[in-house]
Specification:
mainly alpha
Length: 158
């Protein structure tokens, strides 16, 4: 039997899944909770990381999707140095949004893997000391402790 279809590699399958879910996400109405579910489904899919960075950075996106994206970026920081820097900066953008308390909390909590960027480290320190929202301050303190732990174990390096 002559099979004209090549076997799909894991990376190709991940890319295909990411493309399908991202297309579904973009077709949904702004406040759809399915958006949050899609972000959860993209968890650990390295092909989706640039998309998740864009979701976190976009103040017009659904808040719970941004929270989920921040969480994924905390657990699965990009290996690529440029994308890692962009992810950290996207989380900083979310941290600076005064009307998005929950998004700000999760952004602060998710910054630990990105503290090799001096701008992230300074903003996290400032937030931990002086943010008006005590939950954001606590999240920043958590992130600082986590960053130290990651540095000690060598797990925080790109």
């Amino acid at each position: 039997m002559n099979d004209t279809h090549r076997p799909t590699t894991a990376a190709a399958a991940a890319a295909e899944a990411a493309e399908r879910l991202i297309a579904e996400y973009r077709a949904l109405p702004p406040g759809s909770d399915r958006k949050r579910e899609i972000i959860t489904e993209l968890d650990a899919n390295a092909q989706a990381l640039p998309f998740l960075v864009s979701v976190v950075a976009d103040a017009e996106e659904y808040g719970l999707a941004r929270v989920e994206s921040a969480t994924v970026l905390r657990v699965w920081p990009p290996d690529d140095p440029d994308l890692r820097r962009r992810a950290g900066r996207a989380l900083l953008t979310a941290l600076r949004e005064p009307e998005e308390d929950l998004v700000r909390q999760y952004a602060a909590m998710s910054l630990a893997p990105y503290t090799s960027d001096p701008l992230v480290a300074m903003a996290l320190d400032s937030t931990a000391r002086a943010d008006q929202d005590p939950l954001v301050r606590d999240s920043a303190r958590f992130s600082i402790k986590e960053a130290h732990r990651l540095q000690e174990t060598g797990a925080g390096s790109p």
